[in-house]
Every structure is written in C-alpha cells, then in structure tokens.
Amino acid sequence: MSRLAGHCVVAQSGGPTAVINASVCGVIQTALKHPEVFTGVYGANHGILGVLNEDLFDLGKEDRAVIDALKRTPSSALGTCRYKLKSIEKSRVDYERIVKVFKTHDIRYFFYAGGNDSMDTADKISQLAGQMGYDLVAIGVPKTIDNDLPMTDHCPGFGSAAKYAATSVMEAGRDTEAISAKKDYSAIVEIMGRHAGWLAAATGTAHRDEKDAPHLVYLPEVAFSIERFIADVRDVIRQVGFCVIAVGEGIRDDKGKLLAEVGGQFAKDAFGHTQLGGASETLREIVENEVGIKCRTIKLGNCQRQAMHFASLTDVNEAWQCGAAAVEAALAGHNCKMVTLVRGGNGPEDYSCSTGLADLSSVANHEKLVPRSFINQTGNHITQAMRDYVMPLMRGQAPIDIGPDGLPIYPRLRGFAIPKKVT
Amino acid sequence: MSRLAGHCVVAQSGGPTAVINASVCGVIQTALKHPEVFTGVYGANHGILGVLNEDLFDLGKEDRAVIDALKRTPSSALGTCRYKLKSIEKSRVDYERIVKVFKTHDIRYFFYAGGNDSMDTADKISQLAGQMGYDLVAIGVPKTIDNDLPMTDHCPGFGSAAKYAATSVMEAGRDTEAISAKKDYSAIVEIMGRHAGWLAAATGTAHRDEKDAPHLVYLPEVAFSIERFIADVRDVIRQVGFCVIAVGEGIRDDKGKLLAEVGGQFAKDAFGHTQLGGASETLREIVENEVGIKCRTIKLGNCQRQAMHFASLTDVNEAWQCGAAAVEAALAGHNCKMVTLVRGGNGPEDYSCSTGLADLSSVANHEKLVPRSFINQTGNHITQAMRDYVMPLMRGQAPIDIGPDGLPIYPRLRGFAIPKKVT
After folding, report:
1. What are chain A's domains?
2. Gap from B16 CA to chain A (nearest CA, Å)
3. CA A377 to each of CA A222, B36, B156: distance values in angstroms, whole numbers, following the listed order
4. How much of chain A, in percent, has pLDDT values that exceed 90?
5. Is A146 one of the annotated active-site residues of the chain?
6. Do B300 and A303 touch (CB under 8 A)?
7. A168, A170, A165, A163: which is closest to A212 by C-alpha?
C-alpha cells in the first residue's frame, strides 16, 4: 500500500441499533491490521460532536476481546448524536473546527456510521478539508433500522429490528388470540418509522396463516383512511374473531396529516423532529368507539432498535462486513463513498450479499420508501415481494454472552482519552 | 393405582405467560402415561368458560410432537379467560352447570393453571361436586408473571417475564446512554404489576454497575413521593449523566392514589380491573417539567408475558414440573391442592427447586407482595436479597423452533371437539 499514512477516526451517529457496534468492530479490526496506513485508530465520543469537542478515544488501547464483543453488544458504544451540520456556508465555523481537530491529530481517515444526515456531514467535511488543502478520506457506513437509505439494497440494523418487531407482533398476536374468549379483542402494535414503513412492513411476515398476527399492516407510504380502517377491522373480526394491527408511527391521512396528531399526543424532540407515538392511541380510540371492541396498544419504543437478545446473525455479519469494507475502500483509494449492500442470488432461498460503494452525495438527504409493489392493493398488508425481500435479512440467531443471572453481558469500552491539543 | 378412573380436563386462566403451555404440556404428558386412571385427556376452550359452554377438546388426539412443542410456545394454547365465579351461593347456576358437564362427560379430574382467582374457582367446584355426591378432584397449577401467589416460593411465568423485562430495561439503558450526548436524557420503562412489584423489582438486577439501567426502581409496595422522585432523578443525572427508571404500573402515593390516575390516562377493562398504563406518562411529565430533561417512555405491554423468544429455561422446566406434579398429586389421592415450588439450596449459586402442595383455599384470593427487605431503605431500588431471589429463576435460554424466515415457530393445537351432550 502506498496510501497516505495517518490516524483514522470512527464515529457513530443517529439512533443506535443492535448492530452498529458490529460495524464499528469491522472498522477497528480491519484498520488495526494495517498499521502502515492507520497509524492510530481513534473513536469520537458521541459522533461528530466528539470531533467538534476534540473528545477522542484511542481504540487501539482497548482490550481486543471487548472490541470483538462489540459484535454482541447493542447500541452505540462510542456514543451517538443527532447534531446536524448545515451547508458549509451556514455551518462554516463547525466544519473548520472539525478539519482543524483532524489536522492537529493527524487524522486522515474518517469512518462515519449513520443515516443520510451523517453521510451528508461526512461528504461535506471531506470536501471542505480538500478546499483547505488537507487530504481527508471520508467513508460512510450505512446504519438505520428504518432501512430508508438509497443506493443500498438494505441497511444494517434493519434485519435485527425487523426480526424483533415481527416476533413481538407474533407473540402479541398469540396473547390476543388466547384472551379473546368472547371474541372481539384487538391490539395495535406501533412500529417505528416516521416516513418509511419498512419496519412495520417487516412485521407482516409473521402473518403466516389466517390466524397469525398481524392481520392488518398500515404504512406511512399509503394514505390512511379511517373509514377503510374500520371496515378492515370489522372484516378481520368477522373472519378470525380477533384482530392484531401493526402500524407505522408515521401513518398519515390523504391530506398528509399524521394520525398521531388527529387524536393522540405528540411533541417535538430537541432535534425538531415530531416525536411520534400517538398513532396507536388514535387508532385504539377509533376501534373502541367505532368498531365497539376492546383494544390494547403496545409501543415497543427504543426496544425496537436495541434488541440484541434476539438479533439477526445475518444482520450482525453484514454490519461487520460494511465496517470492514469501509476500511478496505479507504485502502483502495476511495473517498466520499458509502458502503452499500448488494443482494445476490435468486430469491430468498438463494440469498447472498456483497458490498459495493456509492457516492456519499447520492445518499445524503434522500429517503427510500417501501415500493408500492411490496404493499397489497388494498393497502392493508404486504405482498410476497416484501416477504421475499425481508426474510433472508432476519435469518440466524446472533450469539450473545450471558451472565450467571441469565441476562446478557454487554461490555463497555474503557475510553482511553486522547489529550486535547486544539486551543 | 386404585384411583377412581375417569376423564381429566386441563384448562388455563388469567393472563397468558411464556410458559403456561409448558405446564399444560406437563399435565398432558403425565396424564397420558396413566390411561388406567385418566381414561381421556381433555382441554377446556378458554378456561372455565369452556366447561360452562361444554366446549371441550380431546387432547389425546393431538399430534404428540405438537404437545411437546407446547414447551416452546407462549400464550395459552387452550385459550384463557378472566371469568370470575363468585361464591357458591351467588354463582350457584354456574357451579351446578360445571358439575353437570363434568358428570356428563365422566370427568373426575380438573387441572386448572392460573392465578388466585382460578384457585378459588377450582376449590369451590370440587367442594360443590362433593356436596352433589360427585367425586371430583381439583388440582391447581400456579401461573402468573406477577409472582404474587402465596404458599409458593415463586410462580411459573415470573422467571421468563423477569428475564425479558430486565433485558429490555438493560437494552433501553444502553440506548439512553448512547443518545445522551448533551447529558440529561432519561427513559421510563413501565412494568406490569397492579399490586405486587415483583416484575419491576426483577428489572433491578440489570443494574450491575453505576452506569447500568435501571438507576431507579419504584414498586407499588412503597408509597411514591413525587418530591423524593424528583430528587432521585436529579441525583442520578448528576452522578451518571442520564437516568433510566423502572416503574411498576401500580405505584401509588401515600394516600393510595394511583400515579396513573394523577396525570395519565386510565380506564377499566371488561373485568372491572383498572386498566393501568399511565404511571409512566405521569412520571414523564414530572421529569420533563420539574427536572427539565427530556424523557421517553416505553410500555412493553403484553409483550412482557409472551416473550418466549427470550424465556428462561429454568422457568420452562419448572412450569412443566408443576403440571406433571399436579397429575401426580391427583394420582396420589390429593384433592383441592395447588402445586407449589419449594426452593432448596443455599443461595443463588446453589439453587434447586422441588414441588410441594398447598391447600387451594390458602392460596385463593391472597396476594404475596415484595417484602420490605427486598427493597432498599430509600425505596428507590432493590437489595441483594431480591437479586439472590430472582437471579436463579432467569437462568438458561429456553429453546424455540425457528422458521426459514428467522422467526419463531409456535404451533397451534388442532382442537378436536368433544361432541356436546348436555342439553
């Protein structure tokens, strides 16, 4: 290799997942194999904020067993953030500060695991560094349970969240079935997904036969009709005797108004995103008042992105591969790319997956929604195409370490701080 | 054996659990070994309602592999109910109808898996049958994730729910820790338990070190003080930088008023129980308004009693043993008894468990609360005594069958209906 030698830094951004640490593990383990290029392997504390604050760790000093255990540890071990950098013009002070920190610490490689905002950040940092005469390689590692990144077949984090959410809906279905002694019981499980309904759609796979939940699946991609919904629930109750509904939190009516805002509570988080959580409450009221049956709601909340205890081995392995591929891309001389997952094989029984690369700029600020062909004509469930897409991603049980108390062991990094040098 | 020969019927009652089917499996598999006594092995559809409605299955006709898979299938495969029989005087028509159905079908043994209401029902049925000159043996099998039955060291269903809830709190903790870039993030996980806080207390075991969630645990057993709560959260934020709180849904203030009623929404279910779910919302408002930090809520809902995908092997095995022991008790000539779990060994590392028997009347309508010695002095976390109690119950990973889609396979009984004979 005749690559420019320098330190590399890896950071995590956005909502944590069960496997984003596996990606970081892939970055660290691969980078440590190439000390001739990566003279140091650093982590940034809480994403780009860690760079801005010059809050860096020396990951090379960590116990190698703990690094390896990142494959079996959920959430963002380096800490995450939702700090959004704007355009270079508007956030110039931040960008210049970042480049200064990189320069001061001889950091030449930046690996950023995150969603589309993070890809935009990584792209702009590399661009500005170049303009400032400092060679900085930025490679993105895809991450999101929402599965809404373009250019990649799917996103690490999605398969595990899908497996957990689908299983939870399946189990909630068995509960509702068992307690429906006098028939007419229903439950609504609210699934994460503000704009893209991938995760809610994935729960549809649990519906293997007529009795299996979810009987109805509603996604943000299809305008939600309250009248149609009432008719749907009545149909299921008549045919099955009980009804379990999976609903994406971001479902909207035909005017684009969030169902969460129609009836339930909602709020904005510190990042300005609408903090959803009311769609299921709105629907519960409709079911109880209009259909006249009892209805329970389940909101798995952040558990959906953390359930390492039932994560997909396929997902863990692919997440690791994405991290490794990011480092390999840098070694091969690429810059401003995001690693992508490329599906091979013919259909779900013949699934294979390799990695590719896409321009960061082609990923940044775009969202991939569930295609209409993955949703049935009535708009209340998924099609076989969606099943074929998601099934292979949920396969395999990711191993975890278990303590004498029967609970998982999720180690933490020690976080060996790099002394600050920037004034 | 010189026992009275006749059919036996097994039924399930109350909230389903991950392991109540394992108990039914224990009953069926053991009863089928003794055809000289149990001339038929029946199931009642939806608990005592199935008897009242003469809605019975012939379990002897089921595929033996499916019977065995009940150990790996959550919820109540026979269906459950919350139909509460009152005193013999007040519900005489029901009781007489039940005895009539039993008599007509030559049912001499009734195995009822459920909580304390169910034990009361089983006790009264046997008594009334005796008064009517019909020998009927009633044996109860303990079941409840709430762990609130007296006379038994613990209840089948609790260990698995504890394992899942503790793990979910642990994982929610990692999420909160990772996203707390600017510090001051908090989350509240609301745990089932109207009167007894066993399950919320069990989540306390996930707090292995200072950073580990839950940092605070509040139970219905200790009067809740809003002032103390605010001070507790501030302390944790100061020391740890973020705060995850586990709270039993039934927490009450010093006047006995449910926190769920102080601020959040609540309702009554069809059974007359207050349908809680608002405690976490009430506390969230307090945290956001009084402590001034962002707070998320997680309500696992019915998932807590269904999470076969991460159930305790100890719990599954003990649930099966309770079912088997119920049949053995009947064979040994006992009547009006509930099987109990008797803890052996010295401490959690030396745990063993056998079964015993207690009078149904001593179990019926009593609740066992978390003892004060299991709760710390401040009333905001658990003690080592609680850890020692619950840890062995969560041990071992219960096996499940997994389909090609990566999701669990939970079979259903076919339900071979017994022709109705009662007019």
Report:
1. 6-143+309-364+396-409 (3.40.50.450), 158-306 (3.40.50.460)
2. 6
3. 10, 57, 45
4. 85
5. yes
6. yes
7. A170
